[in-house]
Amino acid sequence: MRAVLLMICIVFLSSCANQQCRDSVEPESVVLRVDRLEQELFQSESAAEVEEFLKSHPDFARFFLHSDQYPQDSILANRMFGLIQNPSIDTLYQESVKAFQDFDKVVQTLEGGLGRLKVYYPQAPSPYIQTCVTGLYNDLFISNEHVMIGMDFFIGPNASYKPQQIPQYILQRYTTDHLAASILQFISSQFIDTSKSDALLAEMINYGKSYYLLSKLLPCTPGNVLIGYTNEEWNDIYENEKIIWANFIQNEWLFETEHSMKQRFLGERPNVYEIGEKCPGRIGRWIGWEIVNAYAEESGASVQDIMRETDFNKIFSQSKYKPSGS
What we know:
five-stranded mixed sheet
């Protein structure tokens, strides 16, 4: 089973509300099963009832709460019951419920995205969605079968309690708006064939293919939302695209293979200081996306053909990529 417990996600922050939708396909009909487990858990009046809750939802208990690490279910049940009696956790619960009051819209976005994915890949999954509040224990668990959401991670900037282990420049993406793209990007990644080259350019294009596919699954979601940049970051990138690209060319970074060097342009950082203080982290991923967009336009290749293509040199050369304004 493919699964991941995400501590960081790539995605949503709102951009231009009136931005036109990109071209895409009409989605297949997808109806997802959704269970709001937080309601059932927080109605428990004893540790015994919590234990029954865990037995009723064994996959959630195992994958999200790691019940298999406890010698007895009663130990986890007692810990969870103590948790839900804590006044601070009650505050998290109330704020989570408020933040997720429009969760149906997130589900509808997921259903549309998965429906489009099924057009391209009929075998694409339709996972079972469960939400809960666990005292900032876990944020997301995603597999083909399950999507489990720790609601208290996604309350947003006004949350009374925030996860301390996540930097602010990442935490700003932890809102309910982030969820659909984060989930869809992970699920769709299994349909992308990636280059095995160690070159930075190859990895940039691998990321670019992921964002390109995501943009087809969520055609009405602004680009900055898909990659997780603020409006200001997004605008700064386009204003300085030629400068950014010139740095990659002049410093001969495209074929860099040293891991720590590549992470300067692909990894989570508040800024890429090697380029400039206003250049946001993960800029190499964004350039990879621009290259793949250009390749799609130049080649006319189908979405599936682009996802199958592993020759990064072919994609780069045939893209004829040039920064805006060049």
